[in-house]
Amino acid sequence: MANTSAATIYVLNGPNLNLLGTREPETYGHATLADVEKLCAETSAQFGMKADCRQSNHEGELIDFIHEAHASKAAGIIINAGAYSHTSIALHDALIAVKIPAVEVHISNIHARESFRHHSFTAKAAFATLSGFGIDGYRLAIAGLAGKIGVKAKA
Ligand code: CA2
Hints:
- The chain has 155 residues and is an alpha/beta fold.
- The chain has helices at 25-28, 33-46, 59-71, 89-98, 136-148; strands at residues 8-13, 50-55, 76-80, 102-106, 128-131.
- The protein has a 5-stranded parallel sheet, with helices on both faces.
- Strand 3 (76-80), helix 4 (89-98) and strand 4 (102-106) form a beta-alpha-beta unit.
- The longest helix has 14 residues, at 33-46.
- The radius of gyration is 15 Å and the shape is globular.
- The two termini are 24 Å apart.
- The model has no long low-confidence stretch (mean pLDDT 96).
- It binds ligand CA2.
């Protein structure tokens, strides 16, 4: 029988991204995490997909989410690991291990900021990276992921 259930993508946000919209608007804008998750749900729906959105301030919990994405046969992962992007070999290894197509998103342009933000371990485990588009980067990432996995926008 054909599988008619909607593909699910995991949208993972890392440390401090729960603070979006509450401070540093000059860097991260005014949108909240709830706004980001709504945007991801709406964009995914345009492609007939579901977005399962998670945020954690804990590296191990983010790794557990990646393992869960694999166990639940997620079609893709959008990840903004926040500062863990720049430090976490463990997150890199988890993304490599599950072999799920992943896109890394950064709200700010990490290459135009401090040098310690210029390197990303998680980017090396992703097939694409978006940085500097504000929260629109999540929408662009989902559209790009859909194209990569052969899912077309619904009419
Ligand atoms: O630009 C991004 O999306 C970052 O991943 C955000 C991280 C930062 O460590 C990365 O270098 C780039 C920080 C997230 C902190 O988010 C806040 C949002 C509002 C207020 C304070 C922090």
